[in-house]
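Ticket #4471: structure export looks truncated?
Reporter: QA, pipeline team
Priority: medium

Steps to reproduce: submit the single chain below to the structure queue and open the exported record.
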Amino acid sequence: MMAAAHLLEEIENHRNTMVELAMQTSFSDQKVVEISVQLDQLLNQLEQLK
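Actual output as written to the record:
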């Protein structure tokens, strides 16, 4: 299950980056939205592994 462990790490990294950036800008900032979309994709990948 190395793939799942890697995905969980990536999810946590994206989540932290998104929140940090949103606190500096806003949740509607384009970069925050892009990271959110990437986070959604990672979460979908993780769900497919289950």
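Status: closed, not a bug. The export was complete when the record was re-opened. Leaving a note from the reviewer for reference: The chain has a mean pLDDT of 95.
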